[in-house]
Specification:
By secondary structure, the protein is an all-alpha fold. The protein is 46% helix and 0% strand. It starts with 20 loop residues before the first helix and ends with a helix.
């Protein structure tokens, strides 16, 4: 038997989310900024990340997608 639980969804019926929107709305911008500064994973990528980036033309991607269809 699989260890994964199978969840069935009915189209058009959404389950209730777990987000506490009242709590989210109560957080100030300063609290968000301080939390981002304290979280090392939230830091923006540095120059070494951009040095390895490859720029791709959007039109080239569209042409490739059209050819695959």
């Amino acid at each position: 038997m699989s260890a994964k639980r199978i969840v069935r969804r009915i189209p058009g019926r959404r389950g209730r989310g777990k987000t506490d929107w009242t709590r989210v709305g109560a957080i100030s911008d300063r609290e968000i900024e301080s939390a981002v500064k304290a979280d090392a994973d939230a830091a923006p990528p540095g120059a070494e990340f951009n040095a390895e980036a490859i720029e791709i033309s959007p039109m080239l991607s569209i042409r490739r997608a059209a050819v695959r269809l």
